[in-house]
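Sync notes, pocket subgroup
Present: LS, DG
LS reminded everyone that the earlier model was apo-only. Rerun requested with pyridoxal-5'-phosphate included. Inputs:
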Amino acid sequence: MARVYNFSAGPSMLPEQVLKTAAAEMLDYKGSGQSVMEMSHRSKWFDDIIKEAEALMRELYKIPDNYKVLFLQGGASAQFSAIPLNFMNGSGKADYIITGQWAKKAFQEAQKYGDVKAVASSADKTFSYIPKTKAEDFREDADYVYICMNNTIYGTVYKELPPVGDKVLIADVSSCALSEPLDISKFGMVYFGAQKNVAPAGLVVAIIREDLLGNARDITPVMMNYKIQADAESLYNTPPCYTIYICKLVLEWLKANGGLDAMKERNEKKAKLLYDFLDNSKMFRGTVVPEDRSLMNVPFVTDDDELNAKFVKEATEAGLVNLKGHRTVGGMRASIYNAMPYEGVEKLVEFMAEFEKANS
Ligand SMILES: *Cc1c(COP(=O)(O)O)cnc(C)c1O
């Protein structure tokens, strides 16, 4: 069977080369006589895998030495609780910018633990832009400022970080992880659920500045205590071994394909093809203000719900799958992560042009 072009927001496409390598190594990982799925997480084999994954992550993201790289579970959503438990430990205040559903969920969860303020929001226009903030919007004694870097559902992205000064900035980068270079030193913590751009579901990678560790509240569940996870080198309990292995293969693929600079160039080229089409179409249009458009998630609509449904159905039949927009916004959304080849976006744009011609 031919593989489809999968535009899902997550879990999403993985590089074909990664799947082939995983298939070839399925029954016998490098002469071990076992699949990685079957191995002890304390074995030399797995130790090499997780160490190599961390080393590649550090190399690709140029992570400074004073940051820990953790491989965690519970999804990005578990970090919504872990972040206040670990870091809301000075004034007990934290400032959040609400740019969509994921930031809002993180904000709501943090409210259980302290004095949480929404300093800006783009809810007034269905999160179709990134709200501007000024230094004085943030509380002087906030323990941290929280943002969601790329808004998977609404298709906006921060092109410039908010002016938080020397306050601790924490970012959910789940849907733009490893899609372009990122200056980690600007953050106290960045984290991502792997299933958007890096690996199958089940893994969260957290990159945390060391000096922030060690002040978690006493009630923090042990599995959510970043210091304990860091001291145990992510092996406090059984980690998601196979997902970490696929993550390692994806990182190898990224490195072999030129690293994050090359990935950025590729992603810009793919996104431009689609946005240019949307800007010139009479039937389809993007829903986000041009200056805040994501390279990863591209929502678009026609002005007719029936036409949207017809488009999604016919696209699926043509092997362009998972283009239906998020249930909260409707319309369409094309997620074009690292693993989506340029040809996939070309096929999509050709299909949209044909559809427009046939239906107008
Ligand atoms: C998907 C997503 C989440 C939720 O991830 P889970 O791993 O399912 O908890 C959080 N934040 C962003 C930006 C996402 O795209």
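DG: The pocket of pyridoxal-5'-phosphate is lined by residues 10, 75-77, 102, 148, 152, 172, 174-175, 193, 196 (CB under 6 Å).
LS: The chain is about 35% helix and 15% strand.
Action: DG to write up.
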